[in-house]
Amino acid sequence: MALIEFKLPKSISRALNIPVSSPKRQQLKVLIKLLRKSRFTEFGQKYLFDEILLSKHPGKAFQQIVPTYNYSKIFHEWWHRALDGKPDVCWPGIIKFFALSSGTSESSSKYIPITKELIRANTLTSIRQLISLASYNNVPKSSVGKGWLMLGGSTHLQKSATYYAGDLSGIQAKNIPFWFQSMYKPGKKIAKNTDWSKKLDEIVEKAPEWDIAFLVGVPAWVQLCMEKVIERYNLKNIHEIWPNLAFYVHGGVALEPYKRGFNKLLGRPITYIETYLASEGFLAYQNRQDAKGMKLALNNNIFFEFVPFDYKNFDSEGNMVANPEVLMIHEVEENKNYAILISTNAGTWRYLIGDTVKFVDLEKNEIVITGRTKHFLSLVGEHLSVENMNEAIKLVSEELNISIGEFTVAGVPYGNFFAHHWFISTDDNVNSENLKIMIDERLKELNDDYEVERKHALKEIIVDVLSEQTFMNFMKAKGKVGGQHKFPRVLKGKMLEDWQKFLTGEKV
């Protein structure tokens, strides 16, 4: 049976047949294409794109002439004019869509420019990942042409005088290709609903009418959806209503903490496929069943740069210094943490996306996400990453045979020293003191700096066990329900203050 039960348009099919070349060459082609397209914009004129294009080494010239940016800097210097409807600021034409993104730590929304070129590039990367499923073993290839339940943001976008704004998933869903519309669930009517609870209820009611093969979304919300469907129809598992369910496409947070909970809801094993789709673009995807990580999309309108994530390039709060050391794809090394800078076909230039990654296979250009530049704990030099936290939680949940979904950690004062305060969600019976000891021991095994500091200034570990619903209720109180909203793994600043108020019953 054929892998794909629909025929792709010829224009897309041609676009997918890009010859393989070295990573360096692919990336330089992307950079030159971006520079040529935007050379007559205000940004391109100020930063001498014509001169860069004529230089002998355009990659190095680009790095020497164009400064690095975080969101605050690029918005206040450039993007705010595009938001006001001014054309040709950082990308040709008027920007008609902006993705609203607050990541997992910021209290106010960011406006990320979305162009028709970026939407098309995201679609092409999605198709490439879809086609890569042909290499997967022991999965029903016929499932690819069946229903895709995508639990994303609302397609009902905020309208201003010159633009529409909303979740990227909602913008993408509003612009899905015609040939995909028959497979896309929950469909345009339900997807337009801005009330997540009502949307979920409508999905549950429609569930028996759909033949779902793919689930797509953030783990916590997908798990909640499956639980409600199983409860509504008194099922033993989700495969009783969706027998062809074979794939779960996930991204944004590590899946491991959720897997045990997922497995309880399934009638048989499914294939998990990881993606790296940020508001700024589709950066990477898993293209092999047993891949160590995700393959970077090197030849599709994103130019990548990598900043070593160390104290030379970032301060103690995770802010990048003014002139960091920046590497291109051919200069990176395996098993080192890097923060990512991207330049895209939406007028995003040398932009710090906020994630940290590690190359696990240089030959295949495969990465894993290790955390966020501001989501790590190093109160006294313990250098505890989200990757360490995820691995410790995975190991402990397996040892105790419990399901841990959400968790978060905060650094807090403890007498004259410091402590890590963990908040862990599980509905299983567990002793918090035992859980604390086990997490502490696993982190000592995983992180030498942590082990050293536990003997000195990091004096205590505190663990509070909460219900999964507590985490959901906090997200609801913050207006971050459903779609692509994720609970932060590290709490700092305003989010920590709001969380502490929420737990004591105060309004946030």
TrEMBL record:
Signal sequence interval, chain numbering: none
Ranges of residues in domain GH3 middle: 298-363
GO function term, MF aspect, one: acid-amino acid ligase activity
Domain of life, per lineage: Bacteria
Gene Ontology cellular-component terms listed: cytoplasm
Coiled-coil annotated residue ranges, if any: none
Name of this chain's protein: GH3 auxin-responsive promoter family protein
